[in-house]
Design goal:
It is a single chain. This protein is an alpha/beta fold. The chain is built from 11 helices and 12 strands. It has a single domain, classed as NAD(P)-binding Rossmann-like Domain (Rossmann fold, 3-Layer(aba) Sandwich). It is 37% helix and 16% strand. It has a 6-stranded parallel β-sheet with strand order 2-1-3-4-5-10, sandwiched between helices. A two-stranded parallel ribbon has the order 6-9. Helix 1 crosses helix 7, helix 2 packs parallel to helix 4 and helix 4 packs parallel to helix 5. It starts with a strand and ends in a 5-residue tail after the last helix.
Length: 291
């Protein structure tokens, strides 16, 4: 018999893959404002608490988030804006409901809680210091989770992509689309990140739920790549013969008002020592991508 599991963001880029991959393991109680029969607005505590009280689930996976970084930057400081309401108020409500019902909380966060100034990949103990509103709202949400009396676990990811297509382009498809539509496309060779293979991350979520994991874990593929290196890897691995040049984040920042982290790659040694399965390398993951 399937285990009940509360989940937010089940229709999103990451959540929909997890639901698809683990539909036999869990009976999902979705908290979604657009649910056809039982809509739940996570910015309403009464709605969230009611859903928690109705569910026999012992855990909640909190994936719902406003992730448009530029859109969030345009709302900077606005606590009535959708970025703050979803990322902070929504998380506060999930936390309070988890505390009231004794449920284990698995919160999905982001490498954007860091300022991007570190040259090495970030470890879990590095201090958060977000430089734009999306990262700031996610850092506020993390603080709410960490202060919770409910059992909790935070998983941080960066630049997710999946093997199958989704309505929202992921990190791989964004690059491919950019290069195919812009003959003058350039990819930064001085900006670094750590791609997250969603197919593997689904397994990480399942591990965290079934083991009632606690604490913070970085859960990308654990590699550090520049945009240019990632584009080259995609082109070579998938045999696409993509044509693009090298660009400079440093030069771009001279013309951009929005702050931009130079490095958001994550060290996953802590996660690798804890999980009971192997994560794919970025190259292995990209080879499975079906464009």
């Amino acid at each position: 018999m399937s285990t009940s599991l509360l989940i937010t963001g089940a229709q999103g880029l990451v959540g929909s893959r997890f639901v698809s991959d683990f539909g036999q393991s869990y009976a999902f109680d979705e908290l979604d404002v657009h649910h056809p029969t039982s809509p739940v607005d996570i910015t309403s505590f009464e709605a969230v608490l009611g859903a928690f009280q109705k569910s026999s689930a012992q855990s909640v996976v909190h994936l719902a988030a406003y992730t448009d970084v530029t859109g969030a930057w345009q709302q900077t400081g606005d606590k009535t804006g959708v970025a703050y309401k979803v990322n902070v108020t929504g998380t506060e409500n999930i936390v309070k409901a988890a505390e009231a019902t004794g449920k284990h909380l698995l919160h999905i966060s982001t490498a954007y809680v860091f300022n991007g100034e570190k040259s090495e990949s970030y470890v879990e103990s590095d201090p958060v210091s977000p430089i734009e509103w999306y990262g700031q709202t996610k850092a506020m949400a993390e603080e709410v989770v960490m202060k919770s009396s409910a059992p909790w676990c935070i998983l941080r990811i960066d630049q997710p992509f999946r093997s199958d297509s989704f309505v929202k382009p992921d990190a791989v498809r964004k690059i491919v689309n950019l290069i195919r539509t812009r003959p003058d496309a350039k990819l930064f060779n001085d900006h670094y990140f750590g791609p997250t293979f969603i197919d593997d991350f689904s397994k990480v979520i399942d591990w965290a739920v079934r083991t009632s994991a606690s604490g913070i874990y970085h859960a990308s593929a654990g590699e550090k790549l520049s945009d240019f290196e990632f584009g080259t890897l995609i082109s070579d691995t998938l045999g696409l013969d993509l044509q693009f040049g090298a660009g400079s984040l440093a030069e771009y920042l001279k013309t951009s008002q929005r702050p931009y982290q130079k490095n958001t790659s994550l060290n996953i040694a802590k996660l690798q020592a804890a999980i009971d399965f192997e994560l794919k390398t970025v190259k292995e993951a990209v080879s499975l991508v079906n464009l």
